[in-house]
Structure formats: C-alpha cells, structure tokens
Design a protein that fits this description.
By secondary structure, the protein is of the alpha/beta class. It is about 40% helix and about 20% strand. It has 7 helices and 9 strands. The strands form 2 sheets. The protein has a 7-stranded parallel β-sheet, sandwiched between helices. Helix 4 packs parallel to helix 5. The longest helix has 21 residues.
C-alpha cells in the first residue's frame, strides 16, 4: 500500500520559494511533513514562508557547491529532497552570449549536481529532480534549456543506481502557468498559453500544483526509482 501522508518526514525543496517548488512545499506541509525551503532569493523566501505556516527557510544558492554542502553539514539526513531551482531564460544558442548558456547550466544542471553530491538522505528516502518537456522534445528556440533538461533526465536515471537504495526520479513538466512567465505582458502570456493549449490533448496548460502532486507521489511510492515522469498534458504523445 502506498503511503498517503508525510507525517514525521523531513523534506527540503531547493527552489521552494516560488512556482513548482513552492507548490511542493505547501503540499508536503499539508500532508504532515516538516518542510524546509531553500532559495537564494531572500525576499521570495520571506513571502513563501508567509503563505504557509511552519516552513523553515534557508538562504542557499545552488550554484555554490560549498554553500550547498554547508547547508547539509550538521543536519540530520532528510527523508526527501527536491530540486526545482533554476534561474534562466529560454533562448537560442548562436544568437546569445555564451556567458548566458554557461549561467543556465550553472543554475539548473550544476545546481542539481551540487545537491546530489552533498545531500544527506535516509536510505528509505528520495531525491527528485525537475527537468522539462524540452528534454524529450528539443527546440532550437531554447537550445540550452533542451540540453539541460535532457541532462537532468539522464542524471536522475544514473543516480538511481549510484545512490540506491535511495530512490531518484525526475519530474518533467510541460508548459505551466507559473510566475516563470511573469516577464511577458498579459496579452503575450495569453497568446502563448492559448497556442500551447490548442496543441495539447488536454487543451490547456498545466499548473504548478498538478506537478507538485506528482512529485509528492514520487516521494511516497517506494517502488518508483530511475523514472522520468512526463507531466505535459499529453504533449509528448501528440
């Protein structure tokens, strides 16, 4: 029987101050987990803590391997670790400075690697990474993000054997209605989501909470490891 609650379990979410990460933290807390959210943005951390009682916050930049290692030093092992942190934008490769490509890799891919390298997780626990649909459906309009997401998918599969019996999985969302798109105007955002919805079998974009629900399932299902779960409204099958 799959457990349905996280009572007495400790959870840390890197990138937990907004979007999917915050939705995971909120769900885990409602299910009885003791939750820590880690982010480099102190203002977002404060705002996130105000939205959900009982959350511990930690200012950690996942791009800094020493800072990540310091976070875990002296703490008891966590039951579940989630990495959804990323500070990047979609772009072509050849039309943008290489410094932007490196920064994207440092944030999303190396950030996950830093956490995986230093995380202290109970043998009965889990590590969940968050990639994205571009890992299996690459686009020249987002070349580096396509590469990064594919790398995260592979990282999760490899770590599942390296870190066993700790379970390692990857959630791969499609396009979501989250603050990640706040740089667009309302009309641009509406047009983008409408175009995306029209191409999906479910005829709408997803939400952070729907992805969070799947990540919680990855925590609770003790037989899931080495899996990359597509949460994309049927986009990978269309």
């Amino acid at each position: 029987m799959i457990e349905e609650r996280l009572d007495g379990r400790s959870v840390v979410v890197f990138g937990g101050s907004s979007g999917v990460g915050l939705a995971v933290a909120q769900r885990a807390s409602l299910l009885g987990g003791t939750v820590t959210i880690a982010s480099r943005n102190r203002q977002r951390l404060a705002a996130a803590a105000a939205q959900c009682d009982g959350l511990e916050t930690a200012s950690v930049d996942v791009r800094d391997a020493d800072a990540v290692a310091k976070f875990f030093t002296g703490r008891d092992p966590f039951d579940h670790v989630v990495v959804s942190a990323a500070e990047l934008s979609t772009s072509t490769l050849r039309d943008r400075p290489l410094s932007e490509a490196r920064a994207a890799v440092e944030s999303k891919l190396w950030g996950a690697i830093h956490v995986a390298h230093s995380a202290r997780i109970r043998d009965t626990g889990s590590l969940t990474l968050v990639s994205g649909m571009l890992g299996v459906r690459p686009s020249g309009a987002a070349t580096m993000l396509s590469v990064i997401n594919a790398g995260l998918d592979t990282l999760a599969k490899a770590l599942a054997t390296e870190m066993a019996p700790i379970r390692v999985n990857c959630a791969s969302p499609g396009r979501l209605d989250t603050p990640w798109w706040d740089h667009l105007s309302d009309s641009q955002r509406h047009d983008l989501f409408s175009k995306t919805a029209a191409a999906l079998p479910v005829k709408r974009v997803g939400t952070a909470d729907e992805v969070a629900a799947q990540i919680i399932h990855l925590m609770l299902n003790g037989f899931l490891s080495g899996s990359v779960v597509q949460i994309d409204g049927g986009g990978s099958a269309a």
